Amino acid sequence: MRRLLPVVTCAAMLAALYLVFMVVPTEQQMGIVQRIFYFHVSSAWMAFIGFFLVAGASAVYLWNGSRAADRLAEAAAEVGVLFCSLVLVTGPIWARPIWGVWWTWDPRLTMTVILWAIYVSYLMLRAFGGADEAVNRYAAVLGIIGVLDIPIIMVSVRLLRGMHPAVITRNEGGSGLVDPWMRLALLVSAVALILLGSWLMQLRARMGRLGEELAALRRQEEARHGEVA
Amino acid sequence: MRGALVIFRKDLSIEWRTREGVSSVLVLGLLLLVVLTVAHDAPPEAAPALAPSFLWATFLFTGLLGVQRGFLLERENDCLAGLLVSPIDPAAIYVGKLAANVALLAVMQLFVVPLVGLFLHLDLMPVLPALLVVLALGNFGFAALATLFAAISVRVRAREVMLPLLLLPLLVPLLIGTVSATRSVLAGGLALATDAVTVLVAFDVIFAVAGWLLFAYVVRD
Description:
heterodimer; A: 7 helices; B: mainly alpha
C-alpha cells in the first residue's frame, strides 16, 4: 500500500493534467483561465476532507488516547491547510481576469478564508503551545470545535451583503460544465488531488511517528548516561 | 448544579471585592470605542450606520480580555488545581465559569451600548427590547466559546496571543450574525432579523453543549 500510493498518485496526476490541458475544450466565455477551475475545486474538496478528518481523528484521540489518531489529526490539519491555501491562491488567479478583482467578500470566499484561519490557528497551537502532552488534547478540542463551526459559517456568510450570484453560479456545475470531457476532467482531477493529499498525510503521519520514536530513544539514552554518571 | 452555583458565586464575589475586572474592561471598552470613532471620523449623518460594527468589534476585543482575566486569576497560587480536586464535576465548573463570564460581559454591554448611542447619535430607547435579545444572544455565544478557550489559552505557552488567535476565526459567524441582527433591529425590529437570530441561536446552542462536553478534556491532568 505504501509503495502503491505514490505510483497511483503520479498516474492520476498525469491523467488529470493531460485531460485539463490537452483534451478539454476551452470554455467560450472565460477562455483559457477556466482550466484552473479543475484543480481549484478539487483542492477545495481535499481541504474539506482534511478538516473533517481532523475532527474525526481528534474525537478518537479524546476517546481512547490513541497516538496514531493524534498524529493523523496533525497530518490532516497540515494537508488541509495546504490545500485550502491552494484554493486561496488559484481562486484569485481566476478571479482577476473574470471578476476584475483579486478578492471580494463574497460568501464563499469569506467562508474559505475563515476556515483557513481556524486551521492555521490549530497548527499554531500545536507549534507554539509548548511540548506538554496536554497541548495535543487542546488541539483535539479545537479540531472538533472547528468542524462544528463549519455549518454555522456556511449559513452566516449568506447574511453578508454584496453577493455575486450570477458569477458564482457560472462557476458551478450545470451551466459551466456543458462538455462531458469537462466533467470527466474534474472527476479525474479530484481523484488525483485526493490521492496526493492522502499520500502527503500518510508521509506526514509517519514522520510524526518517527519523530516520537526518536524522542523516546533520546530519553532512554539520556537516562542511561545519567545512571553511568 | 449546586457546584456550578458555588463557582459562579465564588467568581462574582472575587470580582465584587476588587472590581478590577469590571473596571479595566469598562475603561478598555470606552477607549476602543473612542479609537474606532476617531479613526473613522464619519460625518454625523453616516455615523448611525457604523453602530452595529463598532458595538460588536468593541465587545469582541474587550470581552476577550475580560474572559481571559477570569482564568488567569485561577493560575495564581495554583487555584485551578484546587478547583479540580474539589468534588465538583468539570462540566459544572464550566457552567459556573460561563455564568460568571456572561454576567461580567452583560455589565460591560450595559456600559458600552449607551456609549455607542451617545457617540454615534442614535436613539436606542425605542428598539431597546429587541436590542436586548440580540445583546443576550451575542453575549452567551461569545462566552460559551471564550470560557472553553480561555481555559486552554492560560495553560499553554505564548498564552497572551493564543486566546485571540484561537477564538477570533471561530467567532466570525457570531460577529456576522450579531452585526446583521443589530442592523436589522436598528432599521425596524427583530422581524427583519430572523435569519441572523437563527444563526445566533444555533451558535449558542451548539457551542454551549460542545463546551459543556469538552471542558473535562481541557482541564483534566
